[in-house]
Protein 1
Amino acid sequence: MAWFLAFWSRPSTATVVRAANARQARSRAQHKQKRGYGSILAARRANPQDARLIRRGVWVRRLRDGSSPQFGGARSRARARQQRSAFRHWL
């Protein structure tokens, strides 16, 4: 069993699930779907950095393109902060 990130059609939302493969991850994420999430666009296996954060219970921030504001430089972290602010009213 590995950790997977299920990305929804709403840009700021991803769900973390434990699954054996991407198909199982999609179905498990579907059970956790809440109103406003949209539909699942992708289910990707969490990379080792993310898996370490998940095991520690840290909120993982991962963009659909694979970049991470937690591990990037100052410019990418600022961009991610702006994106979160844009969706804060919705969360």
Note: Helices lie at 22-31, 48-56, 74-87.
Protein 2
Amino acid sequence: MQALETTLAAFQEHTTQLFNALNAQASLVVHDAQARDTSVAEHLAALEKLDASLGPTLAMAATHQANQARLNPLLQEVKQRDAQQRDAIAEIASMRGELQSLLQMGEAERDEMQRAEQNPLLYKDVLHYAQRLSKYTAAPPGYRLEVQNEGVQSNGPAVRLAADYNQQAARAAGYYDPAISSMAQDLPYPSDRLMRQGILYADAAADGVQPEPGQGSAPTHDTTEASTAHEPVPEALDAFAMDDDDAFDLDLNP
């Protein structure tokens, strides 16, 4: 394109000078006619040379335009590749940050495990853990056993059992863990009816046989005293009929 611009500029310059020479013919005298013809001939010869070189220059310009048309899609593809490369670099940098955080967490956990292996376990920690765990080993946090039905005949008056069926564990009855004080007393634990009607108990009830102490729930102090009273056999749970209370049906029988 630069060669074409140079050729056109020279062509324009010689054309302008040729017309200026022709316009100045009237002011020239006779003895200057030879000089006038020489100037016009020089401009004409220069224009002929420029015209001869203009053809190849135009062909070169056409080739350049064709090449430029082929380069335009390639340039767009290069821009897209550059954008993808920048996105990949940003994603890799983000992943690097996450890996570094994981590495730091792993190193911190490794240091903690090494300290735990090197330092002896204090008995105070064990006792504290056991004391906290003992509150929930017999019953869920916040669990309250329902009062016995008045229709059931028994030798003594109806009593309200403690949460873990231990008369000595009065503190555990109705206990709520401060960490989960907003949790209901039943959920996510099954109700007392579901705990007493497991698979083994349902099979025994379907056969019309009361389960033995070894097959059903473990005998306790209160259940032993009430064993002399006649208790109706509860109906077996229907395996295909479930209600909202059966959502957490668990078989707690051994």
Note: The longest helix spans residues 33-118.
Protein 3
Amino acid sequence: MPATPLRYQIALLLIFMLAFNSVASAQAQRAYTSNNYITIVLEGPKGRYEFKSQDLLVRYNRLTDQLECSVMVNSLAPTSDTIPASMAYEVLYGAKFPEFAFQIDVPEEIISSGKPYPEPLTQRTYITLQGITNQTRIPIVFAPDRNRLSFGTNFDLRLSNFDASIPVRYIPVLTGRLLINISNARWIDQY
């Protein structure tokens, strides 16, 4: 009979440890800052197909010293009525890969400097597209201020660098090059 209270105490201890671990993990993760804009242009031989989203999420991960950026592919809307509304979703295979994400290396010194960097800094960036993550270097302009960081960048990607393909119906109109623009995005430290 004494084994039952011991089992009960062990079970309570395990529940407490799991709950504590969940709280500690939640506190280590910072909240995302929303309402940031991203523009993705699908390049074609005869024109450009531009899509925008105001749903770019940004947060700074102090454990990895990275800005973590993410946008759901289905939030990309065409900037013209002449562009098929589902084109970006189809080209980026949004049904299978709903998120376009990238992590930008940003040392703590940049975050805490409090001074803007007028010239772009070339930062190592990990980009995940269609389930494949590649590392590249992209130019970024930073403007840190006390508890916030604003930044902007322009860079291009080739679908072929991600072993990604263009859906058959878009092969005649697209080159496989994507132009990415983020202008004045910001992360606010809420702690």
Note: The helical segments are 3-28, 87-91, 108-113.
